[in-house]
Specification:
Blueprint (H helix, E strand, L loop, with lengths): L13 E4 L7 E4 L1 H38 L3 H4 L4 H28 L3 H18 L6 H15 L3 H9 L4 H32 L8 H19 L16 H15 L12 H12 L2 H16 L6 H6 L5 H7 L1 H21 L3 H20 L3 H13 L12 H9 L4 H16 L2 H4 L12 H34 L9 H10 L4 H9 L6
Antiparallel strand pairs: 1-2
């Protein structure tokens, strides 16, 4: 396992002293850390994955599915108004990204904050069933995005407080696997609800879709405080020993304790974290990379519409959306797992880019139903590098590993990059008008150009990190700012000397 000394090999024993107030000296080995990691996974991951499934079933996929069964006709929406209803969600979403993640950094009980957000977006989704015109739907979509913004960047930041740099990417992949499954499962659920509940009690099937899925989300939000854990330093479900190990292993990963200082929770501390984030060139590089990538995957908002060009009935069309997402989910997990194992980010992202571009090219050139359907698999596999609407699988993992400390800067960076990137959702919501169907060649060509731009930025960013690692090797740069007090706290936590702790801090290198 990792040790407080960068020279100690895997498999040795690390020791830490509990600074939480009990002064306990703790030693642990690789096997005990693995047992603790499994315990953390079991407690944290299932709840977050279910939330991701509900998040995309309720807020993202429903509109596209409901469109096939009368929503656009019932509300008298033209193509521009329908696209506006998609894009307005991201106006609210972008607005609340940074504040919500900074709140997560400041509070000791994140489960209560996330549970509140879940319950509110479930209520708003259910109320969408009452919409009768364009104005009603725009208002519901805006506030849905406003409330939902608290979830995804908060979840990514939450995981970064529990897992090391080489563990967090695969866990983010699991979150997004729930997202990707929701894209496919949404079609299956919609096929059943839209077909089986049409005009039940005089209510259209698409209204039942919002009522049922919104109600399920509210119910799960009420259960969340009893399921999800808080942070390693504040949770009650771990023993004193386990809490110390959970914090100590993060120190041995990066070199510095990961608990926010009190001044980071104040207004001035929060503003300092935001300024640190927006003044870092790495944040802007990742933001533009993610921005162009999200725009390049805008097909997801119109997946049922694109699938409908194959010429099948509404029910069959919705069912056909599931296999591409299911296959892409398996690929995404394998890709992210291998990325964490190897420590490589760029080439695993580039592979996903390649599949997406290949899918677009096949969609442009294929003249058969089978060829066009196969192209959907490539498009969906592009999600394993990053994930439209909610953020990235490997890219957001790259953010956490590139900006490890201090926590307030990492929180602000995750939120800012996700908010900036999702601005791209607004213009690309208008990229798929029905008059461009069935081939949508203008749309696919635009997507290819955007993906190529994002890949270019990603490669340049990788080269920049290589140069930074070389400077770290020569002692010409520091990955993050530390002070004597923080180093002493970290040294106490891992029961190391100040010299050993400083050596651990200087051993940090960026993952490429």
């Amino acid at each position: 396992m990792r040790s407080f000394s960068p020279d100690v090999k895997a498999g040795t024993i690390s020791s830490i002293s509990d600074t939480i107030g009990k002064n306990i000296s703790v030693e642990w080995d690789h096997h005990e850390e693995k047992r603790l990691l499994r315990k953390i996974d079991i407690r944290c991951m299932p709840a977050l994955v279910i939330l991701f499934i509900l998040n995309f079933l309720v807020s993202r996929g429903n509109l596209a599915n409901a469109r096939l069964k009368g929503l656009q006709t019932d509300l008298n929406l033209n193509d521009t108004q329908y696209a506006t209803c998609i894009s307005v969600l991201f106006a609210g979403y972008i607005f609340m990204q940074v504040p919500s993640t900074l709140i997560m950094n400041a509070i000791p009980k994140p489960r209560l904050f996330m549970a509140t957000a879940v319950g509110l977006w479930g209520i708003i989704s259910a109320l969408t069933s009452l919409c009768d015109n364009f104005s009603d739907l725009v208002v519901c979509r805006f506030f849905l995005g406003f409330v939902e913004a608290a979830f995804y960047p908060s979840a990514v930041y939450y995981l970064s407080r529990w897992y090391t740099r080489k563990e967090v990417g695969f866990r983010i992949a699991f979150l997004n696997a729930g997202n990707m499954l929701a894209q496919g499962l949404g079609g299956l659920f919609a096929a059943g609800i839209l077909g089986g509940m049409e005009n039940v009690k005089g209510i259209r099937g698409w209204r039942w879709l919002y009522i049922i899925e919104g109600s399920i989300t509210v119910a799960f939000g009420l259960l969340l405080p009893f399921i999800l854990a808080d942070y390693p330093s504040s949770t009650n479900w771990l023993s004193d020993r386990e809490r110390v190990i959970a914090q100590g292993r993060l120190v041995t990963d990066v070199g510095i304790i990961d608990n926010p200082e009190n001044d980071e929770k104040s207004g001035s501390g929060i503003m300092r974290g935001v300024l640190m984030a927006i003044s870092d060139i790495k944040v802007w590089a990742l933001a533009f990379m993610y921005f162009t990538y999200i725009m390049g995957l805008s097909f997801a908002s119109y997946m049922p519409t694109i699938t409908a060009t194959l010429g099948f009935s509404t029910t069959i069309t919705l069912l056909l959306t599931f296999p591409p997402w299911a296959f892409a989910t398996v690929y995404a997990l394998a890709n992210s797992w291998h990325s964490d194992r190897t420590g490589d980010k760029f080439w695993h992202i580039a592979g996903a880019y390649g599949f997406a571009i290949l899918g677009y090219i096949v969609a442009l050139t294929a003249n058969t139903v089978s060829g066009k359907y196969v192209s959907l698999f490539g498009m969906c596999m592009g999600y394993s590098g990053t994930l439209v609407h909610a953020g990235g699988i490997i890219i957001l993992g790259w953010i956490s590993t590139s900006i490890p400390r201090p926590p307030i800067k990492r929180a602000a960076s995750i939120a800012f990059i996700n908010a900036f990137a999702n601005i791209g959702q607004i213009p690309t919501s208008y990229l798929w008008p029905t008059r461009w169907g069935k081939r949508y060649w203008q749309s696919f060509t635009t997507e290819i150009c955007l993906m190529a731009s994002s890949l270019t930025i990603a490669f340049a960013y990788r080269q920049y990190l290589i140069s930074q690692n070389e400077k770290l090797d020569r002692g010409e740069a520091e990955a993050y700012i530390t002070d004597e007090q923080i180093i002493k706290q970290s040294a106490d936590l891992v029961h190391a000397t100040m010299q050993q702790e400083e050596a651990l801090v200087h051993s940090f290198r960026y993952l490429l």
